[in-house]
From TrEMBL:
It is found in: Chromosome, Centromere, Kinetochore; Cytoplasm, Cytoskeleton; Nucleus. This is Dynein light chain Tctex-type 3. Homodimer. The cytoplasmic dynein 1 complex consists of two catalytic heavy chains (HCs) and a number of non-catalytic subunits presented by intermediate chains (ICs), light intermediate chains (LICs) and light chains (LCs); the composition seems to vary in respect to the IC, LIC and LC composition. The heavy chain homodimer serves as a scaffold for the probable homodimeric assembly of the respective non-catalytic subunits. The ICs and LICs bind directly to the HC dimer and the LCs assemble on the IC dimer. DYNLT1 and DYNLT3 compete for association with dynein IC (DYNC1I1 or DYNC1I2). CDD domains: DLC-like_DYNLT3. It comes from Dipodomys ordii. Belongs to the dynein light chain Tctex-type family. GO terms for biological process: cell division; microtubule-based movement. It comes from the Eukaryota. GO terms for molecular function: dynein intermediate chain binding.
Length: 116
């Protein structure tokens, strides 16, 4: 069973839209897969590249940073944190947590408005 957890800050960019894009990218890459150390580099690269491509295609005036981590599920859990110093009226972040029975994935999107 795959579960999704969402934490998106509603600011100047559409965090729900970003969440949906990232979720679809994760599903496309990891859906139906079991954890395999040999595939992690390919999986994480595909998730960040696909997510970034789809975000850029939205045509919005943002610079994006996308990070992805995939770890094997264990009794130890998986914890991350981030902090940003930016304009909260225009910049934003979205974190997507995804898991199945063998692995956890977390993707962070940071959107920084381009001021013209």
């Amino acid at each position: 069973m795959e579960e999704y957890h969402r934490h998106c800050d509603e600011v100047g960019f559409n965090a729900d839209e970003a969440h949906n894009i990232v979720k679809e990218c994760i599903d496309g890459v990891l859906g139906g897969e079991d954890y395999n150390y040999n595939n992690i580099n390919q999986w994480t690269a595909s998730i960040v590249e696909q997510s970034l491509t789809h975000l850029v295609k939205l045509g919005k005036a943002y610079k994006y940073i996308v990070t992805c981590a995939v770890v094997q599920r264990s009794a130890y859990g998986f914890h991350t944190a981030s902090s940003c110093f930016w304009d909260t009226t225009s910049d934003g972040t979205c974190t997507v947590r995804w898991e199945n029975r063998t692995m956890n994935c977390i993707v962070n999107v940071f959107a920084i408005a381009i001021v013209l």
